[in-house]
Input
Amino acid sequence: MKYFYILITSSLIIYLILLTFIYLNQRNLLYLPSENNYLDDKIKFEYEEYFIEVEQNIKLKSWLIKKDFKKYKTLLFFHGNAGNLFNRSYKLNRFNELDLNVLIISWRGFSGNSGQPTEINLYEDSRKAVKWLNDKGVSSENIILYGESLGTGVAVELGQSNKFNSIILESPYTSMEKAAKIYYPYLPIKYLLKDKYNSEKKIKNINIPILIMHGEKDHIIPFHMGKKLFETANSPKEFLAITNDDHMLTFDDKLLSEIKKFIEKY
Output
């Protein structure tokens, strides 16, 4: 019996140490700016590079594909959890085929930017990007919010204002808490997690057109999460189930055509 209590006590101590470590280091586990899960491609578009100031001494490396602000809508691209702007070149190449302006920003802590990525900070980064476009003469009503993976939580947060043209979500999660439980089912995530990104709750407040795209074979964010968001969202809404795709959508001609139809519809 004595050894049993020693075993239980030792296990509890180890578990508490694990909880403490994860709580203190969770943002290093959540945000992965140095990893690349995306498909590099040769850049086939012309762009201007800007550094958008979000705080004193913190600027976001950003690329602008500008065609005509007055004639075309502008897609504001919030990228996912890993890699840098070059890692999205295969998507930007396809967007460049559309009558569309594109601004892609990199989060603080990503692409060599200073600063710490957190939920609050990413929200602030996105708002400063909108203001930057507004200052360039782009009205919010002509801005399409585009969220990729991690960036979907930011797009949903911003979309609640209902002042934008529309919102496109690629491989979205319902909440960071539910996504984290997939990887850490043995932890009390609800009480540990600092950055919640509760899109399932917030999407109910959005009343602009929504397009949700999700690969049925997604092994990072389950397909059912994208489907759940779609079911929860208000109309008008559209859902694209990509049969053979994983988390990284391939952006073939068929997918680009569907995105184009959505953009032109609204």
